[in-house]
What does this fold into?
Amino acid sequence: MVQLPTVSPKILFLFSDTGGGHRSAAEAIIEALHLNFGDAISTEMVDIIKQYAPRPLNRLPDLYPSMVRLPRVWGFGYRLSDGRHRARLLNASSWPYVSKSIRALVANNPCDLIVSVHPLATAPVIRALNNTSRPPLITVVTDLVSTHAFWYHPQTDLCLVPTENARQRALHYGLKPEIVQVTGLPVANRFCQPASDKQHLRASYGWPANRPLIMLVGGGEGMGPIEKTAHAIAQADLPISLVVITGRNESLKARLESYNWSIPTYIYGFVRSMPDFMQAADILVTKAGPGTISEALNAGLPMVLYSRLPGQESGNIDYITSEGAGIWAPQVTEIVAAIRHWIDHPLNLEQARLHCQRLARPHAAHHIAQILVEKVGIPIS
Ligand code: UDP
It folds into this structure.
């Protein structure tokens, strides 16, 4: 039972659409707050870069999809900026350029608690708030393992991380152990439901019930060699069916739809029914995005990982493969071999499924919601 104060405390979420993961994490926590505490808390989301960064930095969310299509350049920039002193230096040198905007953000959005789900938000906002009566600021890290130094600011009040590896990283970058807590990555409630009946789900989408179902997806933007991979899987002479999700990549969708497939194949653009698709599938072939990985773990869906963004997604490969939840297959021939291996050895596939379930943290968003509510001082009995 929640005892309502006269005015509901406000939590401000700072995110930006550089990739889909920051928005999804904020939305998942807000959903959990409303599910658990109704109207006891009010929330607001601010895209710190699009709404407040000075030009041309405010165009970063629009440019991000093109930037990550140059993975080597992205990886170089990531390594160059990653490090405690480097992050501090970069934050200090960018302050004169961003200070006016960030001070405006703080002035326009009075609140009782700030939650930062973006690595570029934490340091400038803490600096802009630089006084003793500031609201607490909690960082929720939305990368899984190889997390950037920008995430970890010593004056954050609490840092919630998705994995033990990320916790170690936080300590390495100088955070005190008592302010770092492993909660898991928050994902939407619809990804956290008990398993549904596979056959029933497949029938509802018109997919064959009796063939192992492979699902191929490249994040929200349909990234990676999806076309080549789909053709190789279809031509592998395996008794499977294939679902390909092209996300927002419309031209890829049109090309795949024009092809005459030799196995039952179903092409989709951006789908909202990802939880159903994951529950219906037997194997996921995907890039190593943190959101997709965490959702697949919740669905008990073993993964073949074909690419990763150098930097924030690099550690995801080791994490998933060393825990037995997936296979790293950067070449198309390796992707097909990995699928063949699991189709020929269903017990190994079942083992991987159990490892996914072991790593899953379906209560992460609810756990985080509880921590935030305690921080704003609402008594929960
Ligand atoms: N997604 C979706 N529909 C699609 C493709 C992707 O809802 O058609 C979601 C997916 O479930 C995940 C997110 O988009 O939540 C992708 O996040 P991830 O961190 O894996 O990769 P990003 O796109 O941020 O690089």
